[in-house]
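Re: the request from the purification team.
They wanted to know what the chain is likely to look like in 3D before they choose a buffer screen. I agreed to run a prediction and write the result into the notebook, where they can find it.
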Amino acid sequence: MEKQNHSMMSEFILLGLTESRELQIFFFLIFTIIYIAIVLGNLIIIFMVKMDPLLHSPMYFLLANLSFYDMSLASFATPKMIYDLINDYKIISYQGCMTQMFFLHLLGGSEMMLLVAMAIDRYIAICKPLHYRNIVSNHVCIGLVLGSWSTGFVHTISQMVYTVTLPFCGPNVVDSFFCDLPQVIKLACTDTDILEFLVIAESGLLSLLCFILLFISYCIILITVQHRSSRGSSKALSTLSAHITVVMVFFGPCIFIYVWPFSSISIDKILSVFYTVFTPLLNPIIYTFRNKDMKKALQNLKSMLVQDQSFN
């Protein structure tokens, strides 16, 4: 019977961001431009870190991985959302819906842990500069990245292992522009109260713990720098304020959606856009292109391209 019910649900209907045709066309143009900028911006960062010897350091290695996470996080649902904005039938297959949820929590959980790893890297670099190279070696950096992937994988598997076994035979309308666990689980033809609580509790707890770790790390860094020099404190405050902005944009919506129980569907949609679209766009700007070494590497890349064109 369970297999029969499961087979009856072959697709889900996504309601998308809005029913207004004018807004759909507007969002189509805006999100298409933003998505292209996300992909190009993050690809440039990865390429520069790979090719420029000046950027062969632990910090930029982590930044390159952050760019990969951002590009992937923006790609799991944004292309489908853009397509649906000009398509009357916003349908996603059962397999596609499960795949979206798998990658959302894999990439989301992994990026949270990577941001924590980057904060630890900055803490060691600023608070223990003499021991930095000994502590943050290449092996440690690779371990931090693998640890972030492992955390994301364990997080998404723990969420999906029960979801894929649920029978779906009734309503199939998801009031969002992508499949997310809290909304999809509610459509199952069985009592899912306990599972809904576990999903929200686990995702909310992971988001909240990572946010607290980041907040503590940044506070320690600012206090340490302030005690050393007012000039260094001002520079660090300028840099970290930008980093904290990205953290707030990314973690704020996640914590609100998975921890706050009284948020409405419309608010959840807006917040989902922030951490799936705007955060991947902000990260290249704030974490890298404002950086002195990254600006220099970008200028070198431009010079190389100009020279190649002149030779041709």
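For the purification team: The chain has one domain: 2-311.
Please add any questions underneath this entry.
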